[in-house]
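With this grant's support, we have settled on a layout for protein records. One resulting record is reproduced below.
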Amino acid sequence: MSAEKPKLTWEEADRIIDAATVEVRDDAAPPAELTVTVGILSFRHAATIRQSVESVLAQETDFPFEIVIADDCSDDGTVEIIEALQREHPDRIRLLLARENLGRHTGNGRLNFIRLWRANRGRYFHLLDGDDWWTDTGKLAKQVGFLEHHPDCTLCWHRGRVIYDDDVPAEGRLLEEIFPPGEFAEENDLDALLWANRCLTSSVLYRRGICDTLPDEFLHVRIGDWPLQILHARAGKAGFIDEIMSAYRFHAAGMWSGKPVFDQVIGFFQVMAEIHGWIPETWRERYSAELGRLLGHHFAMDQPAPLGANPSRSLAIVQEILRVPGVEEAFAEKLEERRRERVAVAEKREAKIAGLREKVNEQKAKIEELRSKKRKAEADRKRGKGWFNRGA
């Protein structure tokens, strides 16, 4: 749906990735049974990348794992930091550097992610952004153990802590401090993830082999982590560990969190529309209806948010979302429902006001009646006094 960049084909994407990638690694062969590849996405993360990497290196496991850092041509010192880390841990860290910025080809970080996804050599894969980190040294062992004992689960996630930087305004703090809120079973079906992005990227461990081939639209979908979770959850169960084991840094300069609130909201609806075709048919009608209702609810709010940084583009996105089968009907139904609610509220308010007016009028009538009686009494008193004086 994005109009900013021409859409790439997978063939073009592969060519660009191959031409741009410079791999830095130890020549020694990987362990025969590498259990986990932890892929770290890096772009201008000089202030945070060391904390991110060291939180992975600190994991206490009885199985081998590796770290692959994919940097998208950072120009702020990030490359020098990860090169130093790779020299410090050559047997644990591989680097995928870039000769050019890959993000300019799609307007998102998708090409950088794809080459990282393909670099996976473990039975499991974990994605981590270079400004997030893990807070529990037993996290990786717990999640691998969970997936080993729950073979029906294609991914496993947990709760995390949302850390807001000081530059994030109050209206932009959309997530709970502990995320996700709510209760989840140990094993959840697609329904648990379908209606909202409930998994922090820093929390999800994927089983390898579920999505070796990604859909064509994945190159251009606005965000990548939630659609990736959907692709896995539709093939099995989504496991959940009710522990806080990672941290998500929410800051004004982030690729997603740095956008105006409306752009974040409408962007999520846009993603729901873009992955509509990935949803199993048994869920699709309900999915479309929910998308329409969510969109309608947002536009029917009493005080809707401003239309983002580019209102005309936002409205164009809305028009495209409404073209998804079943969405426009649910959208119109939600607007009509809110209209009826407003009419009912207005009628109730008017009835209340009319009742108050009637009571006020009743009080006025009583006051006037008392005044009239007072005037009559005064007049009678004066008449009585005059008669008595005349009789004297």
Notes: The radius of gyration is 32 Å. The chain has eleven helices and eleven strands.
